[in-house]
Structures are given as C-alpha cells and as structure tokens.
Amino acid sequence: MPWVVRDAVRDINRAVARRWQSIDPLLPDPAAMPAGCGAPLVVSGENGRMVGLGVCVHHHVPAGSLNQSWGAADRFLLTPRLTGQDTHLATGELLSQWRDHLAGVAAARGEDTSAVVAWPSRDITGVRALLRHGLQPLTVIAARTRPTAPGRGPRPVPGVTIRAAGPADEEQVLDLEVQLIKYDGHFGGPVWRRDTVALVRQEVRSSLERQAMWTWLAERDGRAIGLLVAQPPAEAGWIAGMTSRSPAAYLQTMFIQAADRDSGIGAALVRALHARLDAAGVAVTLLHHSQVNPLSGPFWYRMGYRPLWTSWEARPARALRLPVRISPGRGCSRGL
Ligand SMILES: CC(C)(COP(=O)(O)OP(=O)(O)OC[C@H]1O[C@@H](n2cnc3c(N)ncnc32)[C@H](O)[C@@H]1OP(=O)(O)O)[C@@H](O)C(=O)NCCC(=O)NCCS
After folding, report:
1. Who contacts 231 (Cβ-Cβ below 8 Å, separation ≥6)?
2. What atom of ligand 1 comes closest to residue 268's alpha carbon?
3. How would you classify the pairing of strands 50-60 and 41-44?
4. What pTM was computed for the model?
5. Does the beta carbon of 187 sit less than 6 angstroms from any atom of ligand 1?
6. Pair type for strands 284-290 and 136-145
7. Packing angle, helices 196-210 and 170-185, rounded to 10
8. Ligand 1 within 6 A of 264 CB?
9. What would the pLDDT profile of 296-326 be if each residue is shown by its tens digit?
C-alpha cells in the first residue's frame, strides 16, 4: 500500500475512533481494515478528500458447520469506515459502490447468500441509506455493563429449581436449543439445515463434557422448562472485540417453554448469571437477539441490556439494491 494511502487510511481510522467514542463509549476502537475480496471502496467528499472507506470480505461457511444454521452459506461482509458528523451521503455512496462490486462477483448471485453490514446501533445518521439500499435490521448485539451498585439478586420462583446441567442432560438441553432455533427462525436469522439437529447435538455434548460454558436448567417437577447458556470470558474472545470494555462474557442461549413464560423464570436464570458475572468482575456481557422478536427485546432491556450493534442484511446478497426514495414520513411525536 503506498504511504499516501496508508496515511489516509490511518487518518480515517482515527477520525472514526473519535466519532464512535462520541456516539457510544461501549464501541471499541475501529479494528484494522481486513483484506477484502476486491479493491477497497473509496468515498470522496466534495473537495476530493477521502471521507470514507469500505472493504468487502467474502466468508464461505462450509456445509457441516453449525455456523451455517445461523445464516447464509456465503456471506459478503462490508466493513465501513465513515467520517464526519452526518454520514448519510457517504453511507449511500459506499453502499452503491458495494452493490456494484457484488454485481460482478459470481458467488454473490446464488440464493444461499447474504450481504451483511454491522452498524453501531446508536449511529443513526446512516440508517436511511441502509434502508434505501434494501438492507434489513435483522439482529442486534445488546450489551449490559457491570452495575456500580449490586443489582437485585435472583428471586426464587416457587416450585422451580435452577441447576447446572451435566452430560446426563444432553437430551433436555438439545430439545430446548432446537426449540429456540425454530422459534428464532420466524425472524429470518437462522437457516434450518438438514444436519442442524445433529450439529447442535455435537455442540451440546462437547460443551457439557468440557464444562467450559455455564449451562443452567430451570426445572419444575424434574422436567426442564428453561435453559440458559453463557460463555465466560475465556470462551467469549470471538466477540470481545465488539466492545471497548473488558473482560466480556457472552450469553449464548436463553429459552423458556411457552407455557412457563411470564412467571419470572427467565429473570431468575438471568439474575443468577449476572450475580456470578458481577462477582467475577466481568465488565460487560453481550448477546444477540433478533430485532423483531417481540419477546426478547423487551425482556433483555428489562434485564439491563441495550443495543450496541445492529446487523443489517440483504438476503440473498443480490437483494442489495441501488437506492430507492423513502419519504421522510411522520415522526411518532407528531401523532397519526
Ligand atoms: C424472552 C424469554 C426468555 C423471557 O422469559 P420469561 O420467563 O417469560 O420472562 P420473565 O417472566 O422472567 O420476565 C422478566 C421481566 O421481563 C418482563 N418481560 C418478559 N417478557 C416481556 C415481554 N415480551 N414484554 C414486556 N416485558 C417482558 C417481565 O414483565 C418481567 O418484568 P419484572 O421484572 O418487572 O417482573 C421468554 O419469553 C422466551 O423464552 N421467549 C422465546 C425465546 C426467546 O425469545 N429467547 C431469547 C432469544 S435472544
């Protein structure tokens, strides 16, 4: 990379770091730009100066990997770096260039593909451009920071016990995990594959044997009715770079049987986890939830989480389009 370009990239990264910190202190410093599947996409301002950059990375998820059940097999991930207070125009320009780039990539034309961009949830200035290019806000990474004062401890639910799961619980854990994937499937994130159940079983078995994750069951009359799985910081390194706080844990699974919801069991599981994380000095806990899941958002925000990143997707990738005009509409404060 010629030094002039390297300096420009460094300046952009510095400006983006300042911008992100002013938007949301839980955002990390922007990571180095990955090597892309084509030349970097460059956005110039009115005076010809570089105001933004983007890199597209092609990620092929092979069949037989559980990760394929969480999304498309071929994912085209855009890493944007945009400067300035209002990124609306630069976002639009970058997305148009990305769309043109993908139009020339044969692997992006298939059905089992997605175009994905992780966007800071509080960076509202690019949202209209994302919508106009056909992207949908599918998944949220929400974060909870360790409170300064001790929070409410778990409140027992009469007749319900919470205990750690072991290898003998494989069937019950598998059943609840599979129910969760099917439930989440309604919201367009997971993709049901022929081998999804077998792959989840493998993961559950190895995780219960290793005991590296915290897998807890809520039981009534000896029957499992709720499941929580969390990754302590030693297992959560793969997502830790999404936030400035450290150490970070990851809440992987949360499911309560339909008949047992709304009676405090979910809160009891989560508060037991929080008590353990807070005592261990874990600074932040992250989790994914579907943006349109009507149960998870309200629950997580009640439990102290808030949006950090929103994953915007077009599926298949060719659904990423040139901009259409979206009328400003009426704000909710103006009434109907
Ligand atoms: C989300 C889920 C785990 C919540 O579990 P739950 O046992 O029903 O929740 P609780 O009864 O413990 O509720 C805890 C608090 O959140 C509130 N809450 C829970 N769900 C809510 C909802 N959909 N809307 C508004 N508030 C809600 C409760 O009122 C309660 O508030 P309180 O502390 O003031 O009493 C459960 O609905 C579920 O399993 N849903 C399907 C799977 C799913 O969405 N999992 C999350 C994937 S990220």
Report:
1. 212, 213, 214, 249, 250, 251, 252
2. 12
3. antiparallel
4. 0.94
5. no
6. antiparallel
7. 130
8. yes
9. 999 999 999 999 999 999 999 999 999 876 6
Residues present in the chain in total: 336
Q: Which of 186, 299, 303, 311 to mutate to test the pocket of ligand 1 (most atoms within 8 A of CB)?
A: 299
> Please, are residues 146 and 277 in contact by the beta-carbon 8 Å criterion?
yes
Dist. CA 270 → ligand 1 center (Å): 10
Residue in the structure block whose two tokens are 């100066």? 49
**80-94, 129-143, 318-332: least confidently modelled range:** 318-332
Laid out side by side, the sheet with 306-314 consists of 41-44, 50-60, 74-82, 113-120, 306-314, 136-145, 284-290, 248-256, 223-231, 214-220, 160-164
Report how far ligand 1's centroid is from the alpha carbon of 13 (Å): 39
Supply 84's token pair. Answer: 């300035």
Preceding peptide of 2 cis, ω within 30°: no
CA 103–ligand 1 middle distance (angstroms): 42
CA of 122 to the centre of ligand 1 (A): 24
Helix, strand and coil content of the chain, in percent to the nearest 5, comes to 40, 25, 35
Q: In whole angstroms, what is the distance from residue 317 CA to residue 109 CA?
A: 7
